[in-house]
Amino acid sequence: MIARSALLLFALLLGACSALPVPVTLPTISSTDAGDSAPLDPAAAAEAIAAENPYLDSRRSVSSAAHQRFAAATAAMAAEDWDTARADLEWLVENYPKLSGPYLNLALLSLAEGDPEQAETHFRAAIEANASNLVAYNQYAIFLREQGRFDAAEAVYLEALAVWSDHAETHRNLGVLYDLYRGEHDKALQHYYRYQELTGNTDRTVAGWIVLLERQFGQVVQRGQQGAGG
Q1: What's the CATH number where 133 sits?
Q2: For residue 127, how many other CB atoms are within 10 A of its CB?
Q3: In the prediction, which pLDDT does 31 show?
Q4: Among residues 62, 102, 109, 205, which one has the fewest Cβ atoms lying within 10 Å of its Cβ?
Q5: Is there a domain that residue 1 lies in?
Q6: How many domains does the chain divide into?
Q7: What is the DSSP letter of 20?
C-alpha cells in the first residue's frame, strides 16, 4: 500500500483551480516531511494566515461528475488498482485540464509503478495547471530530494515560497532539506524558526530539532573562540 504518514486533508481546496483534494502522499515520504495541513493554534493567527494563501484563493467550481471520478480514482489507488485509477485520472485531465489534482495523483501513481520519469512529467504538469498549488510544489520537491537532486529540490521549495512566503509546510520541508541533506544548518534553523512562528510553536518535533541545532552552533562558536584565543 502507498505510505500515508502525512495524509492530506480531504477538505483542502475542494472548489479550487486545483480543486480536487489530494488524498495520498508520495510513497517515499518520511516522518520528517510535512503534508499540507492548516496552521495550528492560535486559531486567530491561523485564520489570518490561511486567508492569504493564493492556493485557496483560486477557487473554481467543478461538476459532480468530476468529484465522483476523483473519488473513484482515490478508492482505486487505495486498492492499488492502478489501471482503474489511471483511467479516471486521465478522464479528469482530458475534461478538466485546469485542475492540477489529477496530474498530481498521476505522478503518485507513476511512482507507485516505478516510473519516476513519468512521475516528474506529471508533477510539472500539476504546477503548470495551477502555479499556486503549494501541495504540488512540495510533493515535487520531496520527489527530487529522494532522487538525490538536492539543488533542484531547493529551487522548487523556493518557487513555492515565492508564491506564498508564509506557507508553513514549505518552510519545514526546506529546513529538513538544508538540515539533513545539505548540511546547511544555519539556513535550516531560519526555516524551522519561521515554521514555528507560523504554526504557533506547537510542533514539538521541530522544537527538538531547533534545540539540537542551537546546541551544535553554540559548540562551534565556542570552539572558534577558543582557537582564536590560543
Answers
A1: 1.25.40.10
A2: 23
A3: 39
A4: 205
A5: no
A6: 1
A7: S
Q: What is the mean pLDDT of the chain?
A: 78
Of all residues in the chain, the percent with pLDDT exceeding 70 is 68
Residue-range definition of the domain harbouring residue 138: 43-221
Which amino acid, residue 17?
C
Cell (9 digits) for 201: 510553536
In a domain, 19, yes or no: no
Contacts of 217 (CB under 8 A, 6+ apart): 185, 186, 189
The grid cell for 128 is 503548470
Spatial contact of 129 and 99, defined as CB atoms under 8 Å apart: yes
pLDDT above 70 for 53: no
- Cβ atoms of 177 and 150 within 8 Å: the answer is yes
Phi first, then psi: give them for residue 59, nearest 5 degrees: -75, 135
- In this structure, the dihedral spanned by the alpha carbons of residues 57, 61, 66 and 68, taken in order and rounded to 10 degrees, is 90
Find, among 9, 108, 100, 106, the residue nearest to 62 by Cα: 100
What average pLDDT does this structure show over 83-104?
Answer: 94
Whether 27 maps to a domain, the answer reads no
- 110-114, 195-199, 225-229, range with the lowest pLDDT: 225-229
Q: Is residue 38 part of a domain?
A: no
